[in-house]
Design brief:
Blueprint lengths: L11 E5 L8 E9 L2 E5 L5 H4 L1 H13 L9 E5 L8 E9 L5 H14 L5 E4 L2 H15 L22 E5 L7 H22 L7 H14 L3 E5 L1 H7 L2 H7 L7 E8 L4 E6 L1 E5 L19 H15 L5 E11 L10 E4 L5 E4 L6 H13 L5 E6 L3 H7 L5 E4 L1 H13 L5 E2 L17 E2 L8 H10 L7 E6 L5 E2 L10 E2 L4 H12 L2
Parallel strand pairs: 1-7, 2-5, 2-6, 6-7, 10-12, 10-15, 11-12, 14-18, 15-19, 16-17
Antiparallel strand pairs: 2-3, 4-5, 8-9, 9-12, 13-14, 16-19, 20-21
Helix pairs in contact: 3-4, 4-5, 5-9, 8-10, 9-14, 12-14
The protein binds ligand BES, manganese (II) ion and zinc ion.
Length: about 500
Amino acid sequence: MTAVADRSLGPELARTVTIGTDADVLVVGLVTTDDGVALAPSDEFTDVLGTDLRAALTERLRAVGAKGKGEELTRIPAPEGLGVTSVLAVGLGAADKVDAEQIRKSAGVASRALTGVGTAVTTLSGLDLGAAAEGFYLGAYNFPVFRSDKSAPKPDERPVRRIEFLVPEPDFGEEALFRAQAVAEAVATTRDFVNTPPSHLYPAEFAARAQQLAEAAGLEVEVLDEKALAAAGYGGIVGVGKGSSRPPRLIRITYRGGAKKVALVGKGITFDTGGISIKPAANMENMTSDMAGAAAVIATVLLAARLSLPITVTATVPMAENMPSDTAQRPGDVLTQYGGITVEVINTDAEGRLILADAMVRASEDDPDYLIDVATLTGAQLVALGTRTPGVMGTEEFRDRVARISQQVGENAWAMPLPAELRADLNSKVADLANVSPHRHGGMLVAGLYLKEFVPEGVQWAHLDVAGPAYNTGGPFGYIGKGGTGVPVRTLIAVLDDIAAE
Ligand code: BES
Ligand code: MN
Ligand code: ZN
């Protein structure tokens, strides 16, 4: 097993009451107001900079045309007496509309502009220390593990090493920074897993890495290998995994923090070729992201433990590689899901629902109060909602709660229905269910209806389809770079927080 990627590669985050002598760049926020551009925040951090420096900075930024529009960047030489070489001003947009997500995005943009810088110091902590810290940390994320020079090719392309957050007094914001760092590291762990190529991350390796992280955190871990899976009747995981020379796994990680129980389930297809129903070559490499749901729920149970949430959280994670071969399952095969429901596999590329159904039935044996599954499940999610908006389905009340919380944290999941009339399209001529409908209508919803068959009565359930949002195939934006995004880890931890606070 190769070592888990070294997250000490992430930037150091610290608090400071003064601009130290080792800071290279000062990052300030700008807002647009009726009187033109202004520094933000405007109140309690005034003393750190002092009235004269604030006036000098504002004047210079105005002189070079800074407007303070959202994520606008302006870099100027520092005025005398500031102790840094340059000032990077980042726009936050209209003064009365600055929220945590805007701060996160602007901090992320600033962080990406700081490549090559050693230490940056920022006043964005005066707006929201936690959001600023998350934005800076995630904006500085990089994944050099597969570069021959692990520290990135050139010094001026290395992410910023250290970010200092100006605070009014030494004990200000300790808790907020601890939490922000924990959350950001969980997102980075998820990104690392997603960005690790399928050559290096196959089911046994993925399970071993997750096990290593969980045991290091003192959590309970159970791993089922292909023999144990077959013996226990996990027909979905075995069926999907049997085309690959790299056999499937099921890993369960439990954090016990209280009486209320939340089951997390995540799709862990380490590579999705489609199987015998093989995908076209164009963009197939993106199917390295087909384990993003698994990565997110693994990182989330670890994070719940790190934050000592007063609830019990179990991640149940099926892992398989979907390959075509002479041992692969065929279109027309019938398999038996864990628990006994039989399925006609019409399309081997609808594999996610097959491994998830087994895992959801297993997870439900623990009698959870809530069940949340996360999956890069359908191309139809991208058709319906685009690249950045997860779809959330499930039992209505909990579905709406998850969507609302997701929007609050800036991951923006949108509630989608499970229309009853589409269910009949999953009837099979030979088995209890077919794994696909005979048409393309509402593909994301049909997949949700398939999973619904495996959710027990009385369990509050949410199904998150993150096919697009989990993996950024375009250019960087805000605090998100290319590749794995870590979506929906921040939604999941916020939902767990909300459940813990009930
Ligand atoms: N992993 C894919 C879904 C996907 C597509 C994820 C694009 C990320 C980006 C999934 O296993 C799949 O192939 N789904 C099929 C389902 C169909 C056969 C009913 C799809 O969406 O085409
Ligand atoms: Mn598929
Ligand atoms: Zn898939």
